[in-house]
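Predict structure. Chain length: 265.
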Amino acid sequence: MMRVAAIQMISSSDLNDNLATAERLLRQAAADGAQLLLLPEYWPLMGQQDTDKLLIAEEAGNGRMQTFLSAIARELGVWLIGGTIPLKSAEADKVLNTTLVYGPDGELKARYDKMHLFGFQKGSESYEESRTITAGDEVVSFDTELGRIGLAICYDLRFPELFRALGPCNLMIVTAAFTYTTGEAHWEILLRARAVENQCYLLACGQGGVHSNGRRTWGHSMLIDPWGKVLACQAEGEGVVAGEIDQAQIASVRESLPALRHRRM
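Prediction complete.
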């Protein structure tokens, strides 16, 4: 058994405020017994402009955001999946949207650069991440005492082949800043499908509310079990969504319905 927690935020365009909020909620989750903590996508900054993220981008292995994540993981003695932060890209005027994973010793254990870049146009609502983000090209999972954990970021959720490529995982992670429009339509059904297909727990962490830049995100951070049941959820607003990962439940589901062994392709 392991207790896990997703930290739902409504990040602003002020890095200092977001760091303070993240620290407060991480400490709250750890005090409640969580041994693995997850931050949302874009937790350090939801800028007034898409290009604002370039102003705080860090070199891999060095910078205030990375130092914060490493230090708080070590102090709290937890696994910390650091949502996403902007890292400098080889492409001019772009960043990598990167998830960094730190162990209880504060050491970097895994890094995943978001592969699928969101594009959406409906009326006056428009997003095109490829204008400011360089896509990653490698799926990433890592091992813990809980077993293998797979990483995905927001728009990745719509590509089940990524989750299959992660291989058998006991827990899959989705860190996100889903828009209200797409989240209302598709967030829960896609998350539950990924959990059911892969017969594992899924911990999803979102931004959830109206941000200082006027954007509204869907929230609904949740923990889902291998049978597709939502064990915990928070609609909007900042807070902590927590629950237990039971490896016996994973084994039971996979034994009674051995779909992963029945695959033909």
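Summary: The two ends are 32 Å apart (CA to CA).
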